[in-house]
């Protein structure tokens, strides 16, 4: 029998009609001569009624069915006596004239319902049950709508969907590669791509003009909250376009996605701020724009008042900045503020000074220093009675980090963030390089193929760390949703870039010679960007971990409790690859 | 300056207008005071004219440009004096008022034009140049149109695009896995998936109902003509549908693809023939339906005529079958037929008997045996004067293989195949198992998750090799385009299947226990199929190797001459993975 529609879609327009439905038993209530069954499928739940009146045989079958049995039912849609306004299908029910049990089910290890209380690993071990839960299916649907919108919009805009290799060459620059041993070339390895970066640039060299791909990327990194060994990127590259034109194209894409997934009309153009402005105003290169509480420069207002910490910081070229917590004076006790002080120490801050604003003026341990400056302080901090002003005095980076993170933490505590808002912002004009404490040298802030600003090209040879880049990040609700840049398309600039990164001519040639050779043959000016699909889906589904929007993710230890991957393999498999493992000891 | 349109799209409607174009120099003709340049981009070529009359500066620049330089030009579209009817843009030309050289280019190692004479490895080494050639860009565009049609059609039909893992568990059953060593679990390995088979079945268990994915698959096999280490599958799975319903859904998809890529109206339903019929009529499970020349059973017509080879074959339960080559009597000399006899020996055939049909009757070395049977033979073979009848007498399999391949080889030689035709056919009702000479046991003809026909379920325990399966292949022009089946959704059937395949209870549990456990929890009836995207694109682009429709393929030795993958890696990378290579000797 062919299904009439999804169980979750049976509504008043089917009244009086015969329908065939297929789905799972959500729950069963047995009233003896009357049995009610909630039948669930991908689209929702409908109430079935079994009674001698409709079919004795069906009633008999219904006596033995249990949760998660798979049923095919035939019946008539009728009005429900006690309508349930909380259900999409709450006004109707189906009087079952025929039922077939298509499959039976054991008792599931957790409920098939939202907000369950099961461990992450149990959920992953039974992922096929976890995904039956409506909130999980909804997340998968949102992710699907994003990809559909991407394909549609980019196709309409002349982009070609082109696949690049997953078995490719290892490039030790960057994150750690996953390796794939070759059986044909002993001692040789493919690497899984960290991104299709160079291949998409080669496609621009090939004249493809507009490329995109929804591409899997792989990084063998230590795992944190929202990292996965494999993740997915909406990857785009365009020839002959400026950074602004690429941003405009991307905005069209975001508009389409927001509309298709959530029915939201995204206003464009999306605001653009420079990296400097983002750091100054929000203490972050991925500012959450859903609320204010911006960082205020307090130097002028506090200097010379005799508070030594501030004065000496300013004398040594440092900064004194503050955020003003609206209504924070009452809400934050001294103990509470001490906790915040602890919190910001991880960013290198030595202390957190504070003032409360009362109707009688400023209070707090350092208030006595600022009797004369009250007006300037209130003006600079944009504070009013009832507010709390939190100060950090240190070098530029520490001030930004400490107040930037504090701003977000307090906004969450104070419930200042409208969870229904989606605030995008472009952060542009990044530094080309950043200093890496780990490598003790400058590294590429984006990647080594990013084009410096035209006016900074000469600096590349002399003062590389002063260069700014033609790069841009798109930020959503405080998350880096994606980023991109105009790329280098000429060999001499690429060579200068590698030199600035500390490569010798020989080491650059050995590692990237094949790519620089390509630049000899007429590459067009080009640029692009990549959006993190997992993160995008996570934000639109209002989840707090990308695992919730990936069908079969790895757990926090990069393993997969369902299939038990990774696993030991047969000795023959290793022999064929000319490999020997020398594990210190089996951990699993 | 923003590009007005693609160079290849400038036509009469731009006459008299100023345009900005960006592209590559295809060729330059210098007539002194007049320089013509063919400017090429993704969409084609347009003729530029440089002259003192339009711009002295532009003319000067044009004197120094060479092939494959990248130009931005501004100019006026005018009618061309000598229209070129072979060019889309042949009626117009652009009088250049301004030109900027965006990049220079060295001389390319081969021409940027169709039908070049360069080795495969040279083309792959300079793939970014190879892809500039119009026929290659066209192939990429056809592939893109296929994927766009797939996304659109399946989205319209309620399928969800869901990604499954690329880092997963090794399953030694099937082809050889590519392995990925784990850094977190020494001695443990992920495997790259040979297909998303079990994950898509799990998604049906999760209630996704309709799944699809354009999925990369990996097989570390010895390479043949059109095999690649990684290839792409249009992968689909549906719940609660019959094999016929799945086929109908697929036909809708094929219709959409044929229309979107080539503008062809595919007639549906696509013919369905059983596997038995395909083997009997065409000697192949992937029959090329673009021409006739079917295999004819000659047993009745030839038996008892005294030709020993035929008689003894038939007495021993073998077959005598023939194909009739229309007009082959004159075209095929004895020497030529001897070559064909050599050819079919690889399929186990011991000989090739033949008769030519003349106006005077049958001729040839064995004609003397069949003086009495001429009429029956002509009727059975559907032969007429001028035809050649080719006989093979052997067991069923050898007859099918030998005549099946011979049929195709001769059709190609005789030019009987209409290269503009696209003939699809479903081959259904396959045997569930096939005997593997390699493993000396029965193996799954499709895979171990294929559902036997309902009426054969009991045979699974008693005579498994007699079972037929609810499986189906879709064949296009003699190529297996894809295949699928209804899957097993109940644990007891899956257990019986593994048993029939020679698994013990323990070995089945060890390897597939995690999957069989899932079947305990109410899996719906489901099935699906997968189409080979590379092969589909190859056929629609009329290429003879899938390398021609893959942007960056591996060569025939599974290596990639552009980036030199696979490559040796740093010792540190192996140490981190607790691996040692014990290569007998470096091959590269």
Automatic annotation (TrEMBL), chains A, B:
Annotated Aminoacyl-transfer RNA synthetases class-II family profile domain residues: 140-553
Sections of the chain in a coiled coil: none
Molecular function in Gene Ontology: aspartate-tRNA ligase activity; ATP binding; catalytic activity, acting on a protein; nucleic acid binding; transferase activity
Keywords, in A-Z order: Aminoacyl-tRNA synthetase, ATP-binding, Cytoplasm, Ligase, Nucleotide-binding, Protein biosynthesis
This protein's GO CC annotations: cytoplasm
Annotated EC: 6.1.1.12
Binding site for ATP: 219-221, 228, 480, 532-535
Location of the region described as Disordered in the Swiss-Prot/TrEMBL record: 557-588
Name recorded for this polypeptide: Aspartate--tRNA ligase
Record lineage: Bacteria, Bacillati, Bacillota, Bacilli, Lactobacillales
Underlying gene: aspS
